[in-house]
TrEMBL record:
This is DUF3159 domain-containing protein. Keywords: Membrane, Transmembrane, Transmembrane helix. Pfam families: DUF3159. The keyword Ligase does not apply. The chain crosses the membrane at residues 45-66, 73-90, 102-125, 146-170, 182-204.
Length: 217
């Protein structure tokens, strides 16, 4: 998630940075919002709704390229939007625009859940990398416990999205599906980033002896 627990920053600053600031919020929200609004107003104009959605993602990517800023986030969004749009156009079903997101949530949720259950929390691995302690955190029961529950929390978020959105997909309710996708996006992502940041930072307070040093005694 790009968090460095060694840095003294407020949770709000970290959350805002993780979302990419205003640009990141707009890149994340506007393409999906445009699709939902246009499809709701004109259910018979699927091509228009998809075209505007992909067009906005393309504009964000071009702006990043012109400004020579890292285009990875916008480029990833563009590719995902284009793939989803192509699938929806092929099937002629607006709800199929959300299928790639289902796979993404399933993969992320499963990976985090499995990593927690086998004792190799992906959150712990990321924190260990950022703090230059590798996998030494596994020798500390407190860190293992915290990283276990953080991975479970993130996994629960991804599976909750599936649990809420899949019934709407099968019901063909594109408006409700798109709206809940937005509601369960950044509004749930941001608080969990804050919780993760605060928990990890508490484990690596300045002056604490590294886990590997304690284990070496």
């Amino acid at each position: 998630m790009g968090l460095d627990p060694a840095q003294e920053r407020s949770a709000g600053h970290v959350v805002w940075g993780a979302m990419g600031g205003w640009r990141g919020v707009l890149e994340s929200v506007l393409p999906s919002l445009a699709f939902v609004v246009l499809f709701t107003l004109r259910p018979d104009a699927l091509g228009l709704a998809l075209g505007v959605s992909v067009g906005l993602a393309a504009v964000f990517t071009v702006v990043r390229l012109v400004q020579k800023s890292p285009p990875s986030a916008a480029l990833g969004g563009l590719i995902a939007a284009a793939a989803a749009a192509a699938l929806a156009l092929w099937t002629g079903r607006g709800e199929d625009n959300f299928i790639p997101g289902f796979f993404t949530n399933a993969i992320y949720g499963s990976a985090l859940l499995v990593s927690a259950l086998v004792g190799w929390s992906l959150i712990g691995l990321a924190a260990g990398f950022l703090m230059s302690e590798g996998t030494a955190w596994r020798a500390d029961p407190r860190k293992r416990r915290v990283f276990f529950w953080l991975a479970i929390a993130w996994s629960a978020l991804f599976f909750a999205r599936l649990g809420v959105q899949l019934p709407l997909y099968f019901a063909g309710d594109v408006t409700a599906l798109g709206t809940l996708k937005l509601v369960m996006g950044l509004p749930l992502f941001a608080p969990l980033v804050a919780v993760t940041w605060l928990a990890v930072r508490a484990l690596y307070r300045p002056g604490d002896e590294p886990t590997d040093a304690r284990a070496a005694r």
